[in-house]
Amino acid sequence: MNILIVLTSHDQLGNTGKKTGFWLEEFAAPYYVFQDAGATITLASPNGGQPPLDPKSDVPDSQTKDTQRFKADPTAQAALASTVKLTEISAGDFDAVFYSGGHGPLWDLAEDPVSIDLIESTLAAGKPVALVCHAPGVLRHAKASNGMPIVQGKAVTGFTNTEEQAAGLTEIVPFLVEDMLRNNGGNYTKAADWQPYVVHDGLLITGQNPASSEPAAKYLLEQLSLIATK
């Protein structure tokens, strides 16, 4: 079972002068779900190497059992420090793809043609793609084989407008994930802010927020198990 985890390489929060990147829990939780299931994990990002960590995801209030496990895991830290460049990745080598969130992906992965092709190719090959929190934003330009947005008519979720408002970044981000998914024809639903919520529609799996990272990863494994038994 080969699973690819994709992370952002973008570290600037618009023009604020503040840093952003990936959200630690949204990497650590799925990483350990997959590792504990015996998967072979590959980490990738647009630039390769160490992806930028959103500093807000590393404060005491943001810590979880998985982030604490990561901080005590030099092997995982070394893997994260040496992500493969997305241009060196072949979709055919993997059984599934998981996109970790954080605000960074809204700037780079959402516009990255290599990432867009990875998503389109993986789904077209009958393999699942899971994306959590802001990561569903990377579906912005992905198209189905009929040329329509890949989320059109699909049940989806992602970081809500009210969660973005609570984060104080509504006017900073290049687009709002909830609005984009709706505007692209997705059947968007959500739970209460900050509550775990995962939606699946065929091979497409989306999670609303950081708390949805672990359940989204577990559902991805369930989908792989179903595919394996067919």
Any overview of this molecule?
With 230 residues, the chain is α/β, with parallel strands linked by helices. It has one domain (2-229): Class I glutamine amidotransferase (GATase) domain (Rossmann fold, 3-Layer(aba) Sandwich). The chain has seven helices and nine strands; from the N terminus they run E-H-E-H-H-E-E-H-E-E-H-H-E-E-E-H. The strands form two sheets. Strands 3-2-1-4-5-9-8 form a seven-stranded mixed beta sheet. Strands 6-7 form a two-stranded parallel ribbon. Helix 1 packs across helix 2 and helix 1 runs parallel beside helix 7 (213-229). The model has no long low-confidence stretch (mean pLDDT 96).
SSE blueprint:
Blueprint (H helix, E strand, L loop, with lengths): L1 E5 L17 H13 L3 E6 L19 H7 L2 H8 L2 E2 L10 E4 L13 H12 L4 E4 L22 E2 L4 H7 L9 H7 L3 E2 L9 E4 L2 E4 L5 H17 L1
Parallel strand pairs: 1-2, 1-4, 2-3, 4-5, 5-9, 6-7
Antiparallel strand pairs: 8-9
Helix pairs in contact: 1-2, 1-7
Low-confidence stretches: none
Q: Do you know the CATH architecture?
A: 3-Layer(aba) Sandwich
Major sheet characteristics: 7 strands, mixed
What class do helices, strands and sheet pairing give?
alpha/beta
Mean pLDDT: 96
CATH first level: Alpha Beta
**Beta strand count:** 9
Radius of gyration: 16 Å
Proportion of helical residues = 25-40%
Order of helices and strands: EHEHHEEHEEHHEEEH
